[in-house]
Amino acid sequence: MIRFRLFKDKTARLSMLGITILSLGFLLLIGIGLFYMSLPILREKETWKLLTSSNWKPFKGEFGFLPYIISTLHVTFIAIVIALPFSLLTSIYLTEYASEKIRNFFAPIIDLLSGIPPVIYGVWGTLTIVPFISEDIAPHFVEFSSGYSVLAGGIVLSVMITPLLISIFSEVFGSIPKEMREASLSLGATKWQTVKQIVLRKSLPGIVAAIALAVSRAFGETIAVLMVCGNIPIIPSSIFDACYPLPALIANNYGEMLSIPSYESALMMAAFLLFIIIVIFNASSRLILNRIERRYHV
Amino acid sequence: MKLLEEKIFKALMLISAFVIIAVIGYILFTIVSKGIGSLTWDMISKGPGGGFYLGKEGGVLNAIVGSFYLVIGAVVIALFLSIPVTMYINFYLTKTSFFAKTVRFSFDILFGIPSIVYGAFGFAVMIYFGLKASLFGGIVVVGMLITPIIMRSLDEVARFIPRDLIEAPLSLGATKYEMIKILLRQLMPGITTAVLLAIGRGIGDAATVLFTAGYTDNIPTSLSHPTATLPLAIFFQLGSPIEEVQNRAYASALILTIIILILSLSARYFSRKLSKNKV
Q1: Which residues of B touch A115 (CB under 8 A)?
Q2: For residue A89, which phi and psi values (nearest 5 degrees)?
């Protein structure tokens, strides 16, 4: 009997270890797999040229990723610029000023905001943001805009990354010891001065890490952005122009390109680019956040 | 002077908090007011009939059922992977173990990988093995997407299990495996919350299933059949030039939103129950 129990224990431990190692390998597998599948195009063309050319003509065998990369950067930049002040101020309010009651009221709202599927954000964007831009904002600046634009993508994305930013900011602010705040308050500083001089300054690495996470989230967002940003492979010249981010490129074309040589490989390279950038951003911000967590919770 | 600054910033904070509430209200209002008009009983009780995509009769039952099949399969896979991993790194390894840290770290990164990368990678692997878009493919890829989600929230709960609870069964002579079976019961509310969150994420994700699960008007009867999913139903119907079909996209969006609302609220309910159980 005891032998059987020990045997069961040993089997369980080994299979758990096996599954753990397996899932560790999964990340590597994706990276290596994507790289392997983008090899044909990397062999055929110079990597630097692929990244800096804006000629995208799959039928002629020309694959320049520049319009897609620029579009992704534009959309992400706008999203961060809009989302950052709102989420920073709201998380300061929630962690430093708000009562327990208000915090409890906000928690499910933030949850819901992060739980709403991308496609719903896309529907909302096409119904409200896109016509708003084409009818009310763009006419003041340019002659014509369909509304499906860099700006629309940026606005929709900014709403989508806000809950992520708020939850990480709140965690970071919460990790600053109470004693530090009290020391500042007892010296006669106002609450806001304490926030500004102590909390924000101490949280700076965490804030940077949170932004990096939000950026990588924005890079990879597909369906919502695809629905509102127009999908024309040109380098946008203003925020009212249509654009075509990398994930949208993959989503729109993968699955239908099997007859054109190197097309599949080019799309795999797009996925590989996304993967690499996101892994780097994620890894560095997680390292910072882990260090913060460790510093105050020993 | 410094009090003025205080006041200004406090006002700004209140404004931004209010804006966030207003935005979520606006999103829900838009979806409900646009969708409610076309939300009929037929929409949720029937699959697409003849001429559905021209605005004739039918509903999106195929997509609703397809989405649930898909996400249930995915949750099974994800639980099968994430429970052993969480148990291993929390109860077999020490708190400072480098291996445990590496596992956590890599799951954090997997968590951040966008669904389109999972979708594209999954489909490439499926092509390599000569598989067609199917319910099975969708289940596996969505499973990959939600495994890190479940694992991370399980880990969050398992990390704070009181030491006494771990030591009591061991001191009575239980093996570690038997101890874990007991602890799993304690972790149940946590697992439920994690699963509900993961279902919400899996059911709403379009980029993973775009290539891997395909699309069909029928409810799948086998793992090798393609399957419709709600997000894609919304996406495709919205792309139609016919107004009635577009209206149905809004109704489908409302259905998906209601499902998400229910999941989000029940996840909250269970996590509250969890904090009550804390020793």
Answers
A1: 197, 200-201, 204, 260, 263-264
A2: -65, -45
Q: Domain boundaries in chain A?
A: 64-296
pLDDT values of chain B reduced to their tens digit, one per residue, 279 residues = 778 888 899 999 999 999 999 999 999 999 999 989 888 888 888 777 766 777 677 778 889 999 999 999 999 999 999 999 999 988 888 878 888 888 999 999 999 999 999 999 999 898 888 888 889 999 999 999 999 999 999 998 888 888 888 888 888 888 888 888 888 888 888 899 899 999 999 999 988 888 888 888 888 888 888 888 999 999 988 888 888 888 889 999 999 999 999 998 888 888 777 665 554
- When CB atoms are compared, the residue of A13, A192, A283 closest to B176 is A13
Nearest CA in chain A to B123: A255
**Residue B1 one-letter amino acid:** M
Closest CA to B62 of B45, B75, B78, B77: B45
CATH code at A64-296: 1.10.3720.10
Whether B69 contacts chain A with CB within 8 A? no
Distance from CA of B267 to the nearest CA of A (A): 10
One DSSP character per residue, B5-24 reads HHHHHHHHHHHHHHHHHHHH
Nearest CA in chain B to A98: B14
* Residues in contact with A108: Cβ distance below 8 Å, sequence separation at least 6, in sequence order: B264, B265, B268
Cβ–Cβ pairs < 8 A, chains A and B = 243
The interface pTM score, or ipTM, of the predicted complex is 0.90
Kindly state whether B31 is in contact with chain A, defined as any CB-CB distance less than 8 angstroms: yes
Determine the 3-state secondary structure of B58 from DSSP: strand
Using CA atoms, how far apart are residues B230 and B208, in angstroms rounded to an integer? Answer: 13
The encoded tokens of residue B52 equal 């559905």
Give the mutation candidate from B117, B146, B257 for the A interface (greatest A CB count, under 10 A).
B117
Q: Residue A230: left (phi > 0), alpha (psi -120 to 50), or beta? A: left
What is the Cα–Cα distance from A91 to A107, expressed in whole angstroms? 11
